Amino acid sequence: MSARLLIVDDEPRILESLVRLFESEGFAVETARDGAAAEVQLAAGDFDGVLLDVALPGDDGLTLLGRWGAAYPGVTIVMMSGHGTIEMAVEALRRGAYDFLEKPLSSDKALVTVKNALRQARLARENRELRESAGLGRTIVGRSTAIRTLIDAIALAAPTTATVLVTGESGTGKELVARALHDLSPRKDEAFVALNCAALPEELVESELFGHEKGAFTGALAARRGKFEEAHRGTLFLDEIGDMSARTQAKLLRVLQDGLVTRVGGASATKVDVRVVAATNRDLAAAVASGTFREDLYYRLAVVPLAVPPLRDRPEDLSLLTEHFLAALAKAMGRKPRRLERSALELLARHRWPGNVRELRNLLERLVILTPGETIGARDVAKQLPGLPDAAPPEEPAGDAAPEDLESDEPPAPAGSLKGQLDAAEKRAVEAAMREGGTVARAAELLGLERSHLYKKLRKHRLPY
After folding, report:
1. Residue 386, Cβ neighbours under 10 Å: how many?
2. 215 band by pLDDT with thresholds 50, 70 and 90
3. How far is CA 120 from the centre of its chain?
4. What angle do CA 395, 397, 401 make, to 5 degrees?
5. How far apart are CA 330 and CA 317, in angstroms?
6. Residues forming beta bridges with residue 340, ordered by sequence position
7. Which CATH number, 3.30.360.10, 3.40.50.2300, 3.10.310.10, 3.40.50.880, labels domain 4-130?
């Protein structure tokens, strides 16, 4: 389906030339000569983008930009003007425009700018929808002391503008923490922009962060905003900050100090309002001591330090994470929810999880895809997770028989005795926990018992499991 573009300009010749240009590239184009007509079309149509002139009859383009940004948050707006100034361009970006084009328009630049704007908006929308449909990416799951402490710290830091340094091993969920800080902050309705500093060559990191002007380097065919400008009024997440070069560290420090961004190849600075959250799996304090990371930047970033614990240090969260991912993955794939046998969960608990929560999620996705039926057993896990200690997986219990070491010789006491009444209350509590939890592991957590102890209770009261 072609992208729908609304072009708003009061000059007929410009409208005609732009219509020919964008229709030749496969766009579905509509036009308007003033803001009033454009608002009628916006209300009636489902547009992907707007190319909006500043000088218009009635309300000017900047006024319309502010109004439309709030009314149509899914529509990307690119401004244009024949009498533009740096101040006007900065104001347009502050009000939410993707970019600002000067007239007379270059056909190539106009096409590249609009295509980039719509592509970025589409990717952001698809990523958001994917996270929401899968139930993944926005939830910090766990009841361990370490996770509760982390969640409490996030709640305290989120409403502030302080920079945050999130540390932890790969796969622990550092970006989840950054997103939680954003979602719980006054900036939650603005952009969350992420950049992995280790994923780009050193020569491109500065361009990605600060933007560049046309001709700043080979291949810079048009001016481009950087991540700081894209994140204006929102949150910028800098992942793997420990991999940043010394040169870029110095430039980043200046931006954090004065809030001014200068594009690569540019002469003027743009004021930005950005909350920065940085993350690393490295020991930055050690990097400072060795001279590979700036001490002043380290303290600038670590105003609020948050450490995300590895999965091996929070084993009590394993069953909750497993239930969460299995339900979310089944929903995302359109399949029935999968159930993990007790012996399979016990096998997972013997793994050290070097890849942390990301490794667990990926393993469960493979199991959901490759395991027939609705039950995942220990042998299914062992096939996908070789090299576990005590390699032979435990046998699945047959029917309601408990393993030998879990047998209980204690029968319930006579019903009329005090112990009999206590036994009856215990049985009701165990039955309620099993109904609510669905698995022995979950029921044991609800009751505050070891699983082995709960199995004895189930055997004692002749309850199925």
Report:
1. 7
2. confident
3. 16
4. 145
5. 20
6. 376
7. 3.40.50.2300
154-308 belongs to CATH 3.60.70.12: no
Model-wide pTM > 0.85 = no
**Cα separation of 380 and 289, whole Å?**
47
Residues in the chain: 465
CATH of 310-396, picked from 2.60.40.1260, 1.10.8.60, 3.30.420.40, 2.40.100.20, is 1.10.8.60
- Angle, helix 174-183 to helix 145-157, in steps of 10 degrees: 40
The amino acid occupying position 70 is: A
| Domain locations in the chain as residue ranges | 4-130, 154-308, 310-396, 399-465
The predicted-structure confidence for 100-154, as pLDDT tens digits, reads as follows 999 989 999 999 999 988 887 776 665 555 444 444 345 788 888 899 899 999 9
> One fold for both 4-130 and 154-308?
yes
Residue 304 · residue 161 · CB < 8 Å: no
Per residue in 456-465, pLDDT (tens digit) is: 788 778 777 6
